């Protein structure tokens, strides 16, 4: 029976969506993804905005002949990889919580099918 897929009806999906565990999972994921996305977009747009509104400051040398604009651009790589690492770290908890929800719901569906037929 392991690995067998069950067709989830609309009523079963509604029941799953109403479960506190599932709602907690969705809320936790949203609390991570929305701020991370806003931060990513703001950081990404910071370079063109800074270069457009403060070109003199961005063209000053920061380290040797490397300007602040280049440092900011290189920092975007660090930020993207850091954000990826943070998401992967949080995704483990999301996956575990999703597996628990799926296991709980699968057991309920199986019990319903056994009593019905």
Features:
117 residues, mainly alpha, 2 strands, two-stranded antiparallel ribbon
Structure, briefly:
With 117 residues, the protein is mostly helical. The chain is built from 4 helices and 2 strands.
Please, how many helices? 4
Total strands: the figure is 2
Largest sheet: 2 strands, antiparallel
Amino-to-carboxy terminus distance = 17 Å
How do the strands line up in the largest sheet?
1-2
Rounded to the nearest angstrom, the radius of gyration is 23 Å
Mean pLDDT: 89
Order of helices and strands: HHHEEH
Parts with pLDDT < 50 across at least 5 consecutive residues: none
Helix and strand layout, with pairings?
Blueprint: H1 10-18, H2 20-53, H3 55-58, E1 61-63, E2 66-67, H4 68-116
Antiparallel strand pairs: 1-2
Helix pairs in contact: 2-4
What does this structure look like?
- With 117 residues, the protein is mainly α.
- The protein is built from 4 helices and 2 strands.
- A two-stranded antiparallel sheet has the order 1-2.
- The mean pLDDT is 89.
């Amino acid at each position: 029976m392991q690995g067998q897929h069950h067709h989830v009806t609309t009523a079963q999906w509604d029941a799953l969506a109403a479960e506190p565990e599932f709602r907690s999972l969705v809320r936790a994921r949203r609390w991570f993804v929305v701020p991370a996305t806003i931060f990513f977009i703001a950081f990404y747009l910071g370079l063109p905005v800074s270069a457009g509104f403060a070109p003199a400051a961005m063209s000053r040398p920061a380290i040797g002949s490397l300007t602040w604009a280049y440092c900011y651009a290189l920092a975007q790589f660090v930020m993207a990889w850091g954000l990826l690492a943070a998401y992967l770290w949080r995704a483990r908890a999301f996956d575990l919580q999703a597996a628990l929800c799926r296991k709980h719901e699968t057991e309920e569906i199986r019990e319903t099918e056994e009593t019905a037929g």
